[in-house]
Amino acid sequence: MSDEERLKVLEEKAEELRRLAQANGLDLSAEIAVLEEKIAELKRALCLGISPWERVQMARRPDRPSGLPFVQALCEAFYELRGDRVVGDDPALRGGLAKLAGHRVAVLFHHRGATPEEQRRARFGMASAQGYWKARRIMEVAARLDLPLLTLINTPGAYPGVQAEAHNIAGAIASCIWQMLRHPRPTVAVILGEGGSGGAVALAAADRVLILENATYSVISPEGAASILWKDAKFAQEAAAKLKLTAHDLRELGVVDEVIPEPPGGAHTDFTGTVEAVREALLRHLGELTPLPLDELLRLRYKRYRHVGSTNSAH
Amino acid sequence: MPIRRDKRDRYVEIEVSAPQEPLWVRCESCGELIFRRKLQENQYVCPRCGAYFFLSARERVASLVDDGSFTEFLPPRVAEDPLGFADQIPYKDRLTRARKETELFEAVLAGSAQIQGIPVILTVMDFRFIGGSMGVGVGEILALAMERAAQERKPFVFVISSGGARVQEGVLSLLQMVKVVVARERLAQAAVPYVAVLTYPSTGGVLASLGGVADLTIAEEGALVGFAGPRVIEQTTGERLPPGFQTAKFALEHGMVDAVVPRAKLREELSQALSVLVA
Q: Rounded to whole angstroms, how far apart are CA atoms B249 and B244?
C-alpha cells in the first residue's frame, strides 16, 4: 500500500470513529487522537498540499516564531551582547550569552522585529556589515569562554546597501564562516524561517544544521532567480520548485541533518510548541556532539563541508 | 570585452559573448578601434583611454607567471548539474556551451607555477564561464588546490573574476562558500600564505567567502569589489550610489585591500608580496 492509500484508509477510520463516538455517545478521543497523530505524520512525510512556493510564503510570515522572543522562550537566561566594537550595533542580527537547560551557551540570531517600527529598523531581518562583524565578535567571545555556539537563522539575506559595502560586508560574512569553522566547541544552527543566501550561510557553517519543516534555505530568492534566469519575475513559483529550497529537499541533498516538524497549520499557530520542538532537537544534537574531543569535532566538521556536492569523496 | 562606466564612474552591466577573433576591436569606453595585437601587447588595456578589457583565465596566467612554468591540474570528478536544473535552457547545455566557448573545464583554472622564480599554487577565474560563478566544480578545484598548497607548502594565489554563486546549483553552490573556507583553514594550519587578487568583478559569494579571508589582498586597478552588485543595491534600497563606489580605489580607502595596481604592474607587485611571504 502506498503512503497516499494508507493516508486515505486512516482518514476514513478516523471519520468512522468520530461518527461512532457521536452516534453512541462513546468517549473514543484517545483512539481518535492516536489516528490523528498518524495522519499528521503521514501528511508531513508526503508534504501534502503544500507547494514549495507556499512554504516560501510560510517561511516569510512576520509572525513566524523567531528572533528575540524565541530566544527568551528557549533559554532560561539571556544576556545580550551589543555592538561590533568598531562602527555600531545592528538590530537585525543579535546575540549574547545564555543558559539552555542549565548549560552555558552563546546564541546568535536574526531579529526581524514585531512592530512596523522595529521591522523597519531591522530592515526586515537583513543584517548589515555591523551585524556580521558583531556576530564574529560574539563567536570569538564564545571561543575564548569555551562555549557551544547556537545560531537561529531567519533572514531574507544580507543587506545590500552603500554603508554595508563601505564597511566590508563581504569580509564580515567570510569572517563569520571562518570563525564558525574554527570554533573549539560544538556548533548547531537552526533555520527557523528564511535561510537567505550569504546572510544565512554566515551563521550556518555548523556541525549540525537543523531546519523547521516550512523553513527554506536557498542561494537566492525565487523572485531573484526568476528575474536573473528566466528574465521574468512571473517564474518565481517555478524557480521555488527548481531551487530545491524546502526542508525535505534539503534533507535529501544532505544539506541539513534534521527536519523539525511543525504543527499542521504551521509554526506560527503554536509558538510554545515550536520552541519546545526546537529545544528538544537542539539538546539532543548538543548531547551527541559535546562528548567528542576537539580533534574529532574538527575532523567531522572538515569532512562535512569539504565534500559538499563532490562525487569524489575518497580523499 | 571592455568595462563600461557611466558618467558618474559607476560600472555598467556588460554582455559577455563568444570570443571572436576579429583583427580590430572597438573599445566601448572611448570608441577607439584598436588593432587586436596591439591590445594584446598592452595586456588588454585600451591604449587610448585605459579601460580594462576582460582577461581570459589563460591570458591572465600567461601575464603573471614565468614563461612555461604553469602546469595545469587535472579537472576533478564532481557532480554535474546536481539539481537537474533547467530555466529557459537546461543547465547542462549552459555548461557544455561554456566549456566549448572558453576551452576550460570550469570557471576557475588551477595549476602550479612560478612567479619570478617563486613556486606557487595559482588559481584564476574566468568571467566568460557562466559569469565566473562558483558551483560544486569551482569549489572542488579551489579546495583541491588549497590542500595541495598546504601539503607542498607553496603560497596560494587566487585571482578572482566572479559574479558570485552558481544559481543553477542552488543551495549546493551556497555551501561551496563553506567548502572553500574550510580548505582555507588548512592553509592557515600549515602556515602557508594566501594572496587574493581582486579583478573585475569580485562580488557575491566568492568575495564573501574565500575572497574575504586572504592574508594579503591586491586589487587590480579596474576591479569592482563588492558584496552586492550596483544594480541590486539601487533596486533594493533606492540609494544613489556615490561616484567611484565599489572601485578598487574605494576598496583601498575603506580598508578592504592592501594595494591597488595597474594590470601591467600586477606581476611585479605579486612577486614583491610573495618575497616577504615566503622564507
A: 8
Is B32 within a domain?
no
Complex confidence, ipTM? 0.93
Considering only CB atoms, which chain A residues are within 8 Å of B208? 158, 169-171, 173-174, 198, 202
Strand partners, A187: A149
Structural domains counted in chain B = 1
Residues of chain A with Cβ-Cβ distance to B148 below 8 Å are none
List the beta bridge partners of residue B158: B123, B196
**B34 within a domain of the structure (yes/no):** no
CA–CA gap between residue B219 and residue B168 (Å, rounded): 28
Strands (E), A230-283: 258-260
Question: What gap in Å lies between CA A172 and CA B155, rounded to an integer?
Answer: 24
Q: What is the pLDDT of residues B205-229, one digit of tens each?
A: 999 999 999 999 999 999 999 999 8
In this structure, what CATH number is given to the domain that contains residue B166? 3.90.226.10
| Chain A residues 87-106 within an 8 A CB cutoff of chain B | none
d(CA B179, CA A255): 12
To the question of pTM greater than 0.80 for the whole model, the response is yes
In a domain, B74, yes or no: yes
Report whether pLDDT(B92) > 90: yes
Residue-number span of the structural domain to which B251 is assigned: 54-277
Q: Could you say which of A219, A253, A310 has the minimum Cβ distance to residue B167?
A: A219
- B26: helix, strand or coil: strand
Classify the C-alpha dihedral B111-B79-A240-A110 as positive or negative.
negative
Cα A95 from Cα A165, distance rounded (Å): 22
Nearest CB neighbour to B212, from listed A175, A239, A255? A175
Q: How far apart are CA A223 and CA A234, in angstroms?
A: 8
Query: Is B140 in contact with A173 (Cβ distance < 8 A)?
Result: no
- Are B76 and A312 within 8 A, CB to CB? yes
Local confidence band at A223 (pLDDT 50, 70, 90 cut-offs): very high
Residue B71 CB neighbours (<10 A): 9
Provide the 8-state DSSP code for A205.
-
Give, to the nearest 10 degrees, the angle between helix A129-144 and helix A169-182.
20
Task: Say if B264 falls within a structural domain.
Answer: yes
The beta-strand segments (E) located in chain A are 77-81, 93-100, 103-110, 149-155, 187-196, 208-212, 216-218, 258-260
The answer for A 267-286 residues in CB contact with B (under 8 A) is none
Q: SS3 of B152, please?
A: helix
To test the contact with chain B by mutation, choose from A168, A207, A228, A304 the residue with the greatest count of B C-beta atoms within 10 A, namely A168
